[in-house]
Please model this.
Amino acid sequence: MKKRSKCFKDMKKLLPIIFILILSSCSKEFPLEQTVERNGITYEVNSEEPFTGTTVSYYENSQLEQRSNLKDGELDGLEERYDENGQLQSKTNFKDGERDGLDEDYHDNGQLVSKENYKDGELDGLEERYDENGQLEYKGNYKDGELQQNAVILIAIGPSGEISMDGRIIDIEQLKVNVVKMIADNPQQSQSVVLDASIEATADDIIRVMDIAREAGVLRISLTAESLMAE
Model:
């Protein structure tokens, strides 16, 4: 009876070690240069079994260059990339080899460049872009890779300088108020304007509308081909 009890106690001591060994085998880090890609699937060199685990690569100065998680030979989970000074450059989430989830890129100074959401490899959800000082430059909302039209404010300038927003004629003095309201009503949507100016519209009309839109908080203005001819 004492012998059986002693064996049981010894087994309890071994359990943490066994658990650690199992975790290590499931989450091994493997040198990227010792893998090979065949038909889009990653394998260890001289192996026929798709690689599952974490690959890593390093710069000549021993700084980590990238760390990627794979499952059955495809990117699956978080991938991180760094510059030679150890500064994080990007974080990307994958599922079954496709971008899926949050994707972030960074400026050299560590400030966020962009934040995007993906689903099955396509933009899906909010996208934001920032300058090196952390100021928001662009915001858009996507569905299945397509920018949602209700995320864009449409402003047209007629031949005589008349202004319309989404098909409604408005007074130029009311333009800023209307743009501010549209942004406030859709805070998760893109603060972007598509400006469609008649070829007869003057450059002064176009510049004035663009200035008002920026004052209202618009981050991005796109001109149609006809608007560019008008300028």
User: Anything to note?
Assistant: The chain has four helices and 17 strands. Residues 2-26 form the longest helix (25 residues). The mean pLDDT is 85. The helical segments are 2-26, 175-185, 203-215, 225-230.
